[in-house]
Amino acid sequence: QNGDCFFTCLYPNCKLEYSTQIIRNLISPILFSRLLIKIQQEEIRLANIPNLEQCQFCTFAAIVDDPNERIFRCLNQECLKETCR
């Protein structure tokens, strides 16, 4: 996959990826939580969703259908920033 949040088997010629359950058992809960956020962001990026905009300050994303809308308003309660599109 494209991204630094997927872990491929270490054996030569093996293209399989380790499951999230295996990774969860190998790293700290805080690191695993951060990894899940990165995996989610990568999957959203790979989905290539039309009109999807992402907050420049956090991981919140939303579809903005109106091309005339010049301001992106983050709805993440911990962020709530407004930025130019």
Description:
The chain is α+β, with helices and mostly antiparallel strands and 85 residues long. It folds into 2 domains: 48 residues, no CATH class; 37 residues. The protein contains 2 helices and 4 strands, in the order ααββββ. It is elongated.
Could you give the topology of this structure?
Elements: H1 20-26, H2 29-47, E1 52-54, E2 61-63, E3 71-73, E4 82-84
Antiparallel strand pairs: 1-2, 3-4
Alpha-beta content class:
alpha+beta
Provide a count of the helices. Answer: 2
Q: Looking at the structure, what is the overall shape?
A: elongated
Give the helix level as a range of percent: 25-40%
- As for the number of domains, it is 2
Physical arrangement of strands within the biggest beta sheet: 1-2
- The average pLDDT is 90
N- and C-termini, Cα separation? 29 Å
Low-confidence sequence ranges: none
Q: What percent strand?
A: 5-15%
One letter per element, helices H and strands E, the order comes to HHEEEE
Rg is: 17 Å
Briefly say what this structure is.
By secondary structure, the protein is α+β, with helices and mostly antiparallel strands.
Question: Which terms summarize this structure?
Answer:
alpha+beta, 85 residues, 4 strands, 2 helices, 2 domains, two-stranded antiparallel sheet
